[in-house]
Amino acid sequence: MSDANVKRVKSSEIEFKDRLVSIQRVTKVTKGGRTFSFSAIVVVGNENGVVGYGLGKAKEVTAAIAKGIDDAKKHLIKVPVLKGTLPHEQTGKYSGAKVYIQPAAPGTGVIAGGAMRAVLESVGVKNVLAKSKGSSNPHSVVKATINALSLMRDPYTVAQVRGVDLDTVFNG
After folding, report:
1. What domains are defined for the chain?
2. CA nearest 49: which of 80, 73, 20?
3. Phi first, then psi: what are they for 109, rounded to 5°?
4. What is the pTM for the complete model shown?
5. Regions in the chain scoring below 50 on pLDDT
6. Neighbouring C-alpha atoms within 13 Å toward the C-beta of 131
7. 79 conformational bin, left if phi > 0, alpha if psi -120 to 50, beta if neither
């Protein structure tokens, strides 16, 4: 995600919807017994091309979710969404998780697994085909999906980078 073309977004001026991807009860064993706490992965997005993920840990579920939402708002990226789908197919990777996402025709819906579905719906993609390979760990799948989305480029950006007009991008 430390790519130069990732577009960061400020969270103050946008209204977000949050989705809980997974919640885990984790245990720390001390000499006095077991100490339980909760770890929550949360995805936030405005369903219009802005998405972020966060991890929150706390003694209680609600506090962990709140911390996850705050963390997610600090890690937002902008994704090009064209006519309810993505501009092109893309693969993403994080640790052992690999994801493949490709645009789909109108009426297809979001064909994606659990953790990927939350991210893609938060971005605002209505029609997409997605496949998760390798690790099914929700942390890794969410980060791999965000990685794939951060590599997306819309036709206008491609035209600017190549120094040509839009017609050449589509026809050339």
Report:
1. 17-77 (3.30.160.20), 80-171 (3.30.230.10)
2. 80
3. 90, -175
4. 0.88
5. 1-2
6. 7
7. beta
